[in-house]
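Narrative summary of target 7.
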Amino acid sequence: MSDMVYLIDSNSLITPSRTYYQFKFAPVFWERLEQEIIRGKIAILDLVKKEIGLGNDDLSKWLNGIEIGYYIDRRNEEIMLVYQEVLEHVRTNRCYKEAALKEWSNYNIADPWLIASAKVFGLTIVTFESNNTSLNIENPSRRAQIPDVAKFFNVNVCNLFKMMDDLKFIL
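Modeled conformation, tokenized:
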């Protein structure tokens, strides 16, 4: 069993709930995920819970009904300091256009908070975002991707399936 604790991005809950692990087809997946959330192996950031909770669907009902074992409030002072460093990195990195900073500067966008939280607590971010392989100063990107920025801060990132493998999910 992995010693790692995972911090899950909204897309790693929304995508499976709408596609291959819908609640009516894969209840065992959601039961297993719930077990890991309750025992604190999968952490939930307040903004992720808020985003999921805005929906009026099975996913929001499911998450709102769980006792979260490792809940992260982004207003933690250490997180806020690293959050500022994350935004400063996007601002000063010539591989990004101003639009990337503008998007991530929105207080309700979880991505920079996920990176800051993972950095502070030594967590691995679970996301379906992937590296921007064409990221360069000749053609700056309008969007920052979690894996690219997380790498700068030495934060580990994996996808849902890697986390499932590490936690020995059996469906």
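The CA atoms of residues 106 and 112 lie 10 Å apart.
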